TrEMBL record, chains A, B:
<keyword id="KW-0032">Aminotransferase</keyword>
<dbReference type="GO" id="GO:0009099">
    <property type="term" value="P:L-valine biosynthetic process"/>
</dbReference>
<keyword id="KW-0028">Amino-acid biosynthesis</keyword>
<feature type="modified residue" description="N6-(pyridoxal phosphate)lysine">
    <location>
        <position position="202"/>
    </location>
</feature>
<dbReference type="InterPro" id="IPR043131">
    <property type="entry name" value="BCAT-like_N"/>
</dbReference>
<protein>
    <recommendedName>
        <fullName>Branched-chain-amino-acid aminotransferase</fullName>
        <ecNumber>2.6.1.42</ecNumber>
    </recommendedName>
</protein>
<dbReference type="InterPro" id="IPR043132">
    <property type="entry name" value="BCAT-like_C"/>
</dbReference>
<keyword id="KW-0808">Transferase</keyword>
<dbReference type="InterPro" id="IPR005786">
    <property type="entry name" value="B_amino_transII"/>
</dbReference>
<dbReference type="GO" id="GO:0009098">
    <property type="term" value="P:L-leucine biosynthetic process"/>
</dbReference>
<dbReference type="GO" id="GO:0005739">
    <property type="term" value="C:mitochondrion"/>
</dbReference>
<dbReference type="InterPro" id="IPR001544">
    <property type="entry name" value="Aminotrans_IV"/>
</dbReference>
<keyword id="KW-0663">Pyridoxal phosphate</keyword>
<dbReference type="InterPro" id="IPR018300">
    <property type="entry name" value="Aminotrans_IV_CS"/>
</dbReference>
<dbReference type="Pfam" id="PF01063">
    <property type="entry name" value="Aminotran_4"/>
</dbReference>
<keyword id="KW-0100">Branched-chain amino acid biosynthesis</keyword>
<comment type="similarity">
    <text>Belongs to the class-IV pyridoxal-phosphate-dependent aminotransferase family.</text>
</comment>
């Protein structure tokens, strides 16, 4: 269209900040429930196909008005992200590999036909928001400020009018039991993602259909679902999955399903693979012997294989990973009416999961410098 | 929960009607664009898990305010329906088999973990809304009032707080070209629905992911997509599909994919199957000889079969059906880089499609009484 070049981009330099007159009390860390206490402010911008992006605003968190025929209600046209800000020993707010989340956010938005934005500008804006909300970031291991960027189509189907906002909520450990091993119910009848579907994008449409099956798992006494595609293991709840296997050569395989379109390309997933690959040649993982060779790989894993590995005594650990949980051990899988008990460990995680958890949270909190993954919000 | 019995149901007897002070001008029928001119009023009710359903209201159509962390934005938790009101020769507004839409609406809502409602009460309320908006129903074949019931989760994921509303827009023939034959692009890479997915429900999540592939089809000069699952034909755009085949015994097969979980159980689909089964024993379809025996059936159909039927000269007609289009002929399928030309007919529809279209619209408009399918809004 001829108007395209004149449309404004999302520009951090146009940021308008209007602070709340009255600030809310920050709840004590132990009272935090995941994503339930929104901070004082949000980042907000709107897009229309004539003018492009509005000047972004940091403004008091609050409701907005939408037309009843907005396409997001009818067609689920929305994409989102989940990322975290941390405060480390220096008291400075930090983000963890935020460019990966923002790049995925842009891909998810494009998949849902939502308007494009400049990822670098959005990162600058998120840093500005986190700097404003710094007092909300709880200190302490397992605590952080959860950051939820969203982009949602409003107006009619073809209008390409959208709202983008970023909201924040302080958060403690994701699961009540801390690092206790999860008991998962493997789902055969409900399929989270399929070839040609949207499983590799972080779009609203992947989540609504999972609410009922997750509730069914809870009702049966499980903590979460294990998503299957036929016999293939794909994800656990909203997390990627890893299996740790003993090798014949004394080393350890660390495997996770490949990014075949049905798997969310998780930032934690990618980080786990990278950290495992770095041990021990480039860095020793805490608590793991430098002589223990880790062999990370992306490969298909099936329930049949899982049971065989278990029977052979090769399956050492299974865990799920994600921004919310970081590394969460899996101790049991309900499958075809029986429970498959996996190796469990005092304190929760097995040695490989624990080593990766420690190193990852050290990097996130700014206690260990690694490849620029932990990014300061204030220069 | 102990509070459950005290929660209010959706009750038509509690309806509060507040009419708009100023009514909008009704656009001339020829200027109507599908779903773009909302009428003066909407039906509205809200649900919370403590109080249940609010007293339903008919009130001026207008925006509402939502919290940025409403679950519909993050998880696509919404379901909807598409139905139509017609005015026939008697000038009375009518609905077409509305109980089927409302039953599907309740099933879709339940699939998305949205609160339950009494379908009979919702039907009473929709009739009341249509009666209020009677002046908006355009007269004439192919014209009607499109009715969009919606139910959307607001609030936090687990809060089960929801809004239900019904909005209306006058509408003319769905596709600009009237009954001209559609040219469809068969989609291999993007899959609309999958076993274990939500294809059989009318939920927002089924639609957002189709916007890009539909645009890709339009960009290549096609009118719509033909959805495949592997080699299987499933749906066309947002429509069910039928193929008409010549039988060796001189009769005619009318086939459509079975409701295996990947197919929306369309009201028009069901009506077409029923009308075909009634011909000629119980009723003669207009323009079809009583000696022409129709054999409707639900069976899997593949692209391989379609091409074989075409080569054998057995494929007489292919058409798509739905509330919006009623019966729309399909004249071409782009598949694996080539175009498959289907039989086309002067005026658009072939004899079987035309006969079914005529009888169905006669029933919808109240010109032909059939099994109580056309339901008056005012008693």
């Amino acid at each position: 269209m001829s108007t395209q070049p004149e449309r404004a981009g999302l520009e951090a330099s146009r940021l308008i900040t209007v602070l709340a007159n009255e600030l809310k009390p920050v709840p004590p860390p132990q009272e935090l429930r995941f994503g339930q206490s929104m901070t004082d402010h949000m980042l907000f911008a709107s897009y229309d196909p004539v003018n492009g992006w509005s000047a972004p605003e940091i403004k008091p968190y609050g409701p907005f008005t939408l037309e009843p025929n907005s396409s997001c209600f009818q067609y689920g046209t929305s994409a989102f992200e989940g990322m975290k800000a941390y405060v480390g020993p220096d008291g400075e707010p930090r983000l963890f590999r935020p460019e990966m989340n923002i790049a995925r956010f842009a891909r998810s938005a494009a998949r849902m036909s939502l308007p494009p934005f400049n990822p670098d500008e959005l990162l600058k804006l998120i840093k500005a928001l986190v700097a404003v909300e710094k007092r909300w970031i709880p200190a302490g291991k397992g605590y952080s400020l959860y950051i939820r960027p969203m982009i949602v189509a409003i107006g009619l189907l073809t209008s390409n009018t959208a709202l983008l906002w970023v909201m924040c909520a302080p958060t403690g450990p994701y699961l009540k039991g801390g690092s206790q091993a999860l008991s998962l119910l493997a789902m055969r009848d409900t399929v989270r993602a399929w070839p040609g579907g949207t499983g590799e994008y972080k779009v609203a449409c992947n989540y609504g259909p999972t609410i009922n099956p997750v509730q069914a798992a809870l009702d049966k006494g499980y903590d979460q679902t294990l998503w299957l595609l036929g016999d293939k293991i794909t994800e656990a709840g909203v997390m990627n999955v890893f299996i740790v296997l003993k090798r014949d050569d004394g080393g350890i395989d660390l495997i996770t399903p490949p990014l075949d379109g049905t798997i969310l390309p998780g930032v934690t997933r990618d980080s786990i693979l990278a950290l495992a690959a770095a041990h021990p040649a480039r860095m020793t993982l805490p608590g793991l012997a430098p002589t223990t060779l880790l062999h990370p790989s992306e490969r298909t894993m099936t329930m049949t294989e899982l049971q065989a590995w278990l029977a052979e005594g090769r399956l050492l650990e299974m865990f799920s990973v994600g921004t919310a949980v970081v590394v969460q051990p899996i101790g049991n899988i309900g499958y075809d009416g029986k429970d498959i008990a996996l190796p469990t460990f005092e304190g929760g995680r097995g040695p490989v999961g624990q080593a990766l958890y420690e190193r990852l949270t050290d990097i996130q909190d700014g206690r260990f410098e690694w490849e620029g993954w932990s990014v300061r919000c204030e220069d």
